[in-house]
Design a protein that fits this description.
The protein has 2 domains: about 25-100, no CATH class; about 120-165, no CATH class. Helices cover about 25% and strands about 25% of the residues. It has helices spanning about 1-20, 60-65, 90-95, 110-115, 160-165, and strands at about 30-40, 45-50, 75-85, 130-135, 135-140, 155. A 3-stranded antiparallel sheet has the order 2-1-3, with helices on one face. The chain has a 3-stranded antiparallel sheet with strand order 4-5-6, with no helix packed on it. Strand 1 (about 30-40) and strand 2 (about 45-50) form a beta hairpin.
Length: about 180
């Protein structure tokens, strides 16, 4: 079978030579880079691109930083050997052993988790907002500024709540 493939390729080269055209496979090999983003806190690795070495990779630095979700990242560029462009998709040396790798036991997210605010001090609450408290789902009915108290929240099923909520409009503009 390999012999038939080689014979067919040789036939195509002869035909193209007779026509005066050059085959894509006759093109000179190109050198490629593998652009890799690594999250420092847990070592998670993502192969972002395989690109020709003569191209600029600066835009991948910003994408790597964004992929870190607030954590410190490092972008590295690995130089790969010469590859014929037509064989790029089938080239095992480009992809073997160098794929993305999942994170180890994560030590990430410490900074992000510290951004929570106690519900009684939440300045974004508006009348009608439904929140989950220890006693179940409650509707915020308070006015003014924090700190709020339990009295500023009513249980979702209470009789006086239903009447007040019936006339409210939700994001889609439909009455509840």
């Amino acid at each position: 079978m390999e012999r038939q493939v080689n014979q067919r390729a040789e036939s195509q080269r002869r035909l193209q030579a007779a026509r005066g055209t050059q085959s894509v496979t006759d093109a000179p090999p190109k050198v490629f880079d593998r652009v890799i983003c690594t999250r420092v806190c847990d070592g998670a690795r993502m192969v972002m691109a395989i690109r020709p070495s003569d191209r600029d990779h600066d835009n991948y630095l910003q994408m790597c930083s964004a992929a870190g979700n607030g954590e410190i990242t490092e972008m590295t560029v690995e130089r790969l050997g010469p590859v014929v462009v037509a064989d790029l998709a089938a080239s095992k040396p480009l992809f073997s052993g160098r794929s993305s790798s999942p994170a180890a036991a994560s030590s990430c997210g410490g900074r992000i988790n510290n951004l929570s605010v106690p519900i009684f001090a939440d300045t974004t609450l508006r009348r009608g907002d439904i929140v989950a408290l220890n006693g179940g789902f409650k509707v915020f009915i308070g006015r003014g500024e924090p700190p709020f108290t339990e009295a500023d929240f009513k249980t979702l099923g209470e009789k006086d709540m239903a009447k007040g909520l019936r006339g409210m409009k939700v994001a889609g503009g439909e009455p509840m």
